């Protein structure tokens, strides 16, 4: 009975360490403690192998892993059309997060798209102008860091649709889509049938505009 209770205690401690692990070492150590507890119940070899596995598992966290130092941060910058043209807004969350660079990039995008609208005599209906979002998500640890970036197109009603992720030219292609969709939606007034056909041909095949 004593052996069974000891194994049960070892199994429980291993499970606790596994659930609360914050490093690779703690995770492996927790699993090892559970295995050691189970092996200790095997007749003949358990009394020797079980404790050895459990002791080794207890040492692993200090040999393999440090405490979990991972951090997460994110940014989101928005380009929306308002009185007098496009404007930007944004937010940043987490250690070291800074949205100013993304907002500056979208500010330039807004200026360039506005120049396209001017070729058609400017915006006639601000309620039909599209916008876009530029977001990023970063995870980092002791010796590594990973960042994912994404663009979304935003229709005049505020509905977002994913455009591209982690592409060097995704902001440029998204801005072209914003301009074309705004034009087709009637933001610059009526356009000729030939112009509509030409602009429509440059949209993805699955695009539908109201």
Overview of the molecule:
This protein is an alpha+beta fold and about 210 residues long. The chain is about 45% helix and about 20% strand. The chain contains six helices and five strands, in the order αααββαβββαα. It has helices spanning about 1-20, 25-40, 45-65, 100-120, 170-185, 195-200; strands spanning about 70-80, 85-95, 130-140, 145-155, 160-165. It has a five-stranded antiparallel β-sheet with strand order 2-1-3-4-5, covered by helices on one side. α1 runs antiparallel to α2 (about 25-40) and α2 runs antiparallel to α3 (about 45-65). The protein is elongated, with a radius of gyration of 29 Å.
Instruction: Report the principal-axis shape.
Output: elongated
The count of strands amounts to 5
The helix tally amounts to 6
Main beta-sheet strand count, sense and barrel state: 5 strands, antiparallel
Trace the largest sheet across and list its strands: 2-1-3-4-5
- As a percent range, the share of helical residues equals 40-55%
Strand content: 15-25%
Kindly provide the radius of gyration, computed on alpha-carbon positions and rounded to a whole number of angstroms. 29 Å
Low-pLDDT segments: 1-9
First-residue to last-residue Cα separation: 74 Å
Structural class: alpha+beta
Q: Kindly report the average pLDDT value.
A: 78
Q: Spell the H/E element sequence.
A: HHHEEHEEEHH
